[in-house]
Amino acid sequence: MEIKGTVISGGNAEGVIYTGREKPYGTQIKSNFWGNVQKKRYRKARAAAAKRLEEMAALAMQQAGEVGEAIFMAQTLILNDEEFVNEVENLLAGDRMIAEAALRQVTDEYLERFSRLENELLRTKAEDIKEVSALVMEELFVIGGENEEETVPFILATKELNTSRLVSMVSYGLTGLVLEKCPAGAHMALVARAMNIPIIAGVHPSRDWNQKKGILVGSEGKLVIEDEG
């Protein structure tokens, strides 16, 4: 099967396709011990996200000075916000959700609260919350399930991706991107070109592609998905 899209970044990539939606956010787990398993996943993802933010803050300090560093330091404070963390872990203990579901629910609740504020400065904090949540979500994706440790080359097909998530995922095997939205002049697209990560855009990802082998030909704007059988 061949999928056509708009060329954003050239180059070729091969790997397993992940749609980014392989785990339904509403899924609940029946096992009684699963709450502790999910807490460990969430804490491990937060620790990994904290390390990434520390690295990005150091890089921003070198390239943009204290102003750039301050952005990631503020996001680190959000990552470690005790009230936010407790709300996520309380959901894991009470409803036995997967970590992704609990994080998404609490994030949405916080974004709703901030959207009602009149103070513009506080409302802009919502963008930092989204960025931090996305970073932790990505680390959860990388961690996978309790026994999923192996990293393999993969092509991510999803709605959109920000720059910090791109940088984070490359070190874990990302080889290419198929996105629904990605302006050619976006910062993320510029970074992807510099890193030789092919991107095609204007494509609505299908769950049917998940975990199938794919070949992304960025220069031709196409994704070839291998047929099963």
CATH superfamily: PtsI, HPr-binding domain
SS summary, helix count: 6
> What Rg, in angstroms, do the CA atoms define?
18 Å
| Strand percentage | 15-25%
List keywords for this structure.
single chain; 229 residues; alpha/beta; Enzyme I, Chain A, domain 2; 8-stranded mixed beta sheet; 51% helix; 16% strand; globular
How are the elements arranged and paired?
Layout: E1 2-4, E2 6-9, E3 12-18, H1 34-79, H2 82-95, H3 99-115, H4 120-143, E4 154-158, H5 163-170, E5 174-179, H6 187-194, E6 199-201, E7 213-217, E8 222-225
Parallel strand pairs: 3-4, 4-5, 5-6
Antiparallel strand pairs: 1-8, 2-6, 3-7, 7-8
Detailed description of the structure:
The protein is of the alpha/beta class and 229 residues long. It has one domain (2-225): Enzyme I, Chain A, domain 2 (Orthogonal Bundle), CATH 1.10.274.10. The chain contains 6 helices and 8 strands. It has helices spanning 34-79, 82-95, 99-115, 120-143, 163-170, 187-194; strands at 2-4, 6-9, 12-18, 154-158, 174-179, 199-201, 213-217, 222-225. An 8-stranded mixed β-sheet has the order 1-8-7-3-4-5-6-2. The longest helix has 46 residues, at 34-79. The protein is globular, with a radius of gyration of 18 Å.
Q: In a few lines, what is going on in this structure?
A:
By secondary structure, the chain is of the alpha/beta class. It is built from six helices and eight strands. Mean pLDDT is 83; it is low at 21-33 and 146-150.
